[in-house]
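We emphasize that the prediction below concerns an isolated chain of 151 residues; any contacts that depend on oligomerization or on bound cofactors are therefore not represented. The input was used exactly as deposited, without trimming of termini.
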Amino acid sequence: MKTTEWRLSYVNKEFSVCSSYPPVVIVPESVSDDELRRVATFRQGGRFPVLSYYHTKNKMVIMRSSQPLTGTNGRRCREDEKLINATLRHGFRGYIIDTRSLNVAQQARAKGGGFEQEVHYPMWRRIHKCIERPVWTSWLPTATIHIIVKL
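Result of the prediction step, given as a token string:
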């Protein structure tokens, strides 16, 4: 993939930011490693949004991350907003696909988790599409992965 919009980041080279991410991740060029560290503190398990798929012809992407830690007080992170918005081309909107039901996502807020607030992510539409977790994953933590799709 040759593009000036994305870069390799070694912010996690010693697994110090996120133990479940590889040492090298692909992120928007306009977001610094210091900003990624701040975003990681705002996302459950430090799983900040990273590139998972890039369509070379239309430049649409899929990014993955964990839920934001907005909690009941609606905490926000401007660096997170910057990172997510950096994936949008001018004049385009995107979708945040939350793989939990709306009810489960709202319950997570009481435990410090939550979801992206529309007021802080105005160019994004959040969709809740519950995905059944296979029985063999029942031993895994209940952390939910969000998929961010640029359309």
